[in-house]
């Protein structure tokens, strides 16, 4: 089975460069603006789009992403609407992979089988579910693989060589290396340490390794892109979005461009990097 | 309902499941630490020196065993109620006096155990979440005793309504962090503690306050609290020469209840009742996860949760900060579905009345949490015969609630 994610990484390899991966919260600050933003991302240079599914209790997220989730929930975002949004995005865009990222409970309550069927039909390519470690693979990871969706797992600095094989066993699409122990939006790890960690993971897998958490600038994105197969940027984009809102937290005429402009700058940083060391 | 197991005491399984409940639903960063903790606890549990250490601190630092006290005037009052309705019954009510423990509640039993495990693991920094503040006070106390750094997360709403405990924690040298996210109560304090743990995982031990969270916490906390039921068994033998006929305890996450219940789960003659917080009423805002919720996944485990149709966690409400949690320990969810334990609820108003009743009849001011259990005793005991032995877990004392209840009563007198 070849997914949009596999195809995208094969193309990038041919072009000799790393991926620029964006994260935004689905439905932030409202479903219509959120759709307009994700529609603008491929043109701005996003190679893979991650979309957060809002949850009331995002245990691993920092203040920026927490607030984004609140805005989305307050604007009426639900699992059904998130899938609908991706369906609408897919009408004009067939090649950019979309990865849903979130917590397990909303998926569990929606119903795992129904969720996988509907996500696949909407054009979702992969899932990242923060609170499902390999110990709970039977919940969603295995059914997702069977449904033809990539299940992308996080590896962290605490994932040692002994544990890595368990983490990688049912991972597909790519590996998401979280460069620090901490919540989203924390300070960045230095790129030397990231390089060593990526090399360590690559000893255990042939999957692409993307790196996220704490990347805020084009320079930082270049540094990470040089040492990995992709740089993931989330909180900085969420901050650009929230900085464009009015006093009530509502979208303004500036909102879509505020995100797209930052994405374009970050994409340029990634594209100026050399291909990651094989 | 599941088919009944041979023993209700054998859970969880190797992966931390009680039936479909429990498990380990946490971020990858934490998994290696949780596996380390499981190993450390398994070793400690089998180590005679650890058990000896714990027994020593229980006796001389906590002040155990806590008494099992026959509440004579409460019993007489309940017999009068029974007689007035022509039933001529009224169980003999005993109070298991966990409120007499050092720091004022059952929470210290668990914290002692976890801090001794943390010491074995070489951890120097302890974090905890707290609702009513009792778990925070117990944690701050044992951190002071063992010279450990202590950070306690507490919802900003709870910081305001449990001020005496905030002051105590600070006096004991702990740092209290008011949590402003979400609903600013216990569940948000737990989220914030998890965020801290993910960030400082290399040197930090997370001391969870109830029988919830990822495996092995529900099992470990239950084991540490089971001293309540073990003592009750021996004390009732001594007082009455037999087992009690019923047990009753309030449920926030369910640790004081689990501690009392667990040693009796296989004694089929013993009726067991847990009391959740019905807040303003079960059709309004409340914190009764079993009655008003359904199975879901939060804070590292699968259990009954209050949520909406989209799987978003709903706000819980209880007058009592210690019960104001939208979930419940996974073992309780399992005991509920197997039918071994009967779960009831009591409203804010019922708890307030029970609070005053026990204060006036027995000279014991209970915690508002414990008052929820007393509120159901007032109904259950008059229906039982006079030779029925009922044990209520008095999980904590009401000192922390004096300002809050005082304000409410003053407001009503005007
Ligand atoms: C006195 C007292 N009782 C009961 C509880 C509820 O906790 P649990 O249900 O874990 O026993 C608390 C929690 O703060 C408490 O302080």
TrEMBL record, chain B:
The cofactor(s) it depends on are: pyridoxal 5'-phosphate
Family according to the record? Belongs to the TrpB family.
What broad taxonomic lineage does this protein's source fall under? Bacteria, Pseudomonadati, Pseudomonadota, Alphaproteobacteria, Hyphomicrobiales
Output this protein's name. Answer: Tryptophan synthase beta chain
Cross-referenced HAMAP family: Trp_synth_beta
GO CC, one annotated term: cytoplasm
Q: Assembly state and interactors?
A: Tetramer of two alpha and two beta chains.
Gene3D superfamilies given in the database record: 3.40.50.1100
Instruction: List each copy of the Tryptophan synthase beta chain-like PALP domain by range.
Output: 82-396
For this UniProt record, the keywords arranged alphabetically read as follows: Amino-acid biosynthesis, Aromatic amino acid biosynthesis, Lyase, Pyridoxal phosphate, Tryptophan biosynthesis
Question: What residue ranges are annotated as transmembrane?
Answer: none
Q: Give GO terms: molecular function aspect only.
A: tryptophan synthase activity
Q: Which Pfam families does the annotation name?
A: PALP
- Entry's PANTHER family? TRYPTOPHAN SYNTHASE, TRYPTOPHAN SYNTHASE-RELATED
Q: Which organism is it from?
A: Nitrobacter hamburgensis (strain DSM 10229 / NCIMB 13809 / X14)
């Amino acid at each position: 089975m070849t997914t949009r994610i596999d195809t995208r990484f094969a193309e990038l390899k041919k072009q000799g460069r790393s991926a620029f991966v964006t994260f935004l919260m689905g439905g932030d600050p409202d479903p219509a603006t959120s759709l307009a933003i994700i529609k603008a991302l491929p043109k701005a240079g996003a190679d893979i789009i991650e979309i957060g599914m809002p949850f009331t209790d995002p245990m691993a997220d920092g203040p920026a992403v927490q607030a984004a989730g609140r805005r989305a929930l307050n604007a009426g975002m639900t699992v059904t609407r998130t899938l609908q949004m991706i369906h609408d995005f897919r009408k004009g865009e067939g090649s950019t992979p979309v990865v849903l990222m979130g917590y397990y409970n909303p998926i569990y309550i929606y119903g795992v089988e129904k969720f996988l069927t509907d996500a696949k039909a909407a054009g979702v390519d992969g899932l990242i579910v923060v609170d499902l470690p390999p110990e709970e693979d039977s919940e969603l990871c295995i059914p997702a693989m069977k449904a033809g969706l990539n299940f992308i797992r996080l590896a962290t600095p605490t994932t040692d060589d002994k544990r890595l094989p368990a983490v990688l066993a049912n991972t597909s699409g790519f590996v998401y290396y979280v460069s620090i122990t901490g919540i989203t939006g924390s300070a960045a790890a230095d790129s030397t340490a990231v390089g060593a960690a990526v090399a360590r993971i690559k000893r255990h897998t042939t999957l692409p390794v993307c790196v996220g958490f704490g990347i805020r600038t084009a320079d930082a994105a270049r540094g990470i892109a040089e040492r990995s197969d992709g740089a993931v940027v989330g909180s900085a984009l969420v901050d650009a979005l929230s900085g464009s809102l009015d006093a009530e937290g509502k979208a303004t005429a500036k909102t879509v461009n505020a995100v797209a402009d930052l994405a374009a700058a970050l994409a340029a940083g990634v594209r100026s990097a050399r291909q990651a060391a094989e | 309902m599941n088919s009944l197991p041979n023993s209700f005491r054998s859970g969880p399984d190797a992966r931390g499941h009680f039936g479909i409940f429990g498990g380990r639903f946490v971020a990858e960063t934490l998994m290696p630490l949780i596996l380390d903790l499981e190993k450390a606890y398994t070793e400690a549990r089998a180590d005679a020196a650890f058990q000896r250490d714990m027994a020593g601190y229980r006796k001389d630092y906590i002040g155990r065993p806590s008494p099992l006290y026959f509440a004579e005037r409460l019993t007489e009052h309940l017999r009068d109620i029974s007689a007035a309705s022509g039933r001529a019954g009224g169980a003999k009510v005993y109070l298991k006096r966990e409120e007499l423990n050092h720091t004022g509640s059952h929470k210290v039993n668990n914290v002692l155990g976890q801090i001794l495990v943390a010491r074995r693991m070489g951890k120097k920094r302890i974090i905890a979440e707290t609702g009513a503040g009792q778990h925070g006070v117990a944690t701050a106390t044992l951190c002071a005793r063992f010279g450990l750094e202590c950070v306690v997360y507490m919802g900003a709403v709870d910081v305001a309504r449990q001020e005496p405990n905030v002051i105590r924690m600070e006096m004991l040298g702990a740092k209290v962090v008011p949590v402003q996210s979400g609903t600013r109560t216990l569940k948000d304090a737990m989220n914030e503690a998890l965020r801290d743990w993910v960030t400082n995982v290399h040197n930090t031990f997370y001391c969870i306050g109830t029988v919830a969270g990822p495996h092995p916490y529900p099992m470990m906390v239950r084991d540490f609290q089971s001293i309540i039921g073990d003592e009750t068994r021996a004390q009732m033998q001594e007082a009455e020469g037999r087992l009690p006929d019923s047990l009753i305890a309030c449920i926030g996450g369910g640790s004081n209840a689990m501690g009392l219940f667990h040693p009796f789960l296989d004694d089929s003659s013993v009726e067991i009742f847990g009391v959740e917080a019905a807040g303003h009423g079960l059709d309004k805002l409340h914190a009764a996860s079993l009655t008003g919720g359904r199975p879901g996944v939060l804070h590292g485990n699968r259990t009954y949760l209050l949520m909406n149709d989209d799987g978003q966690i709903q706000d819980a409400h209880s007058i009592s900060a210690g019960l104001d949690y939208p979930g419940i320990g996974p073992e309780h969810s399992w005991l509920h579905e197997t039918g071994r334990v009967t779960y009831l609820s009591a409203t804010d108003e019922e708890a307030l009345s029970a609070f005053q009743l026990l204060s006036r009849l027995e000279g014991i001011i209970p915690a508002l949490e414990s008052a929820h259990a007393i509120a159901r005793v007032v109904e259950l005991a008059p229906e039982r015969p006079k030779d029925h032995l009922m044990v209520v877990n008095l999980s904590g004392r009401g000192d922390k609630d004096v300002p809050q209840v005082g304000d409410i009563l003053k407001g009503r007198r005007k």
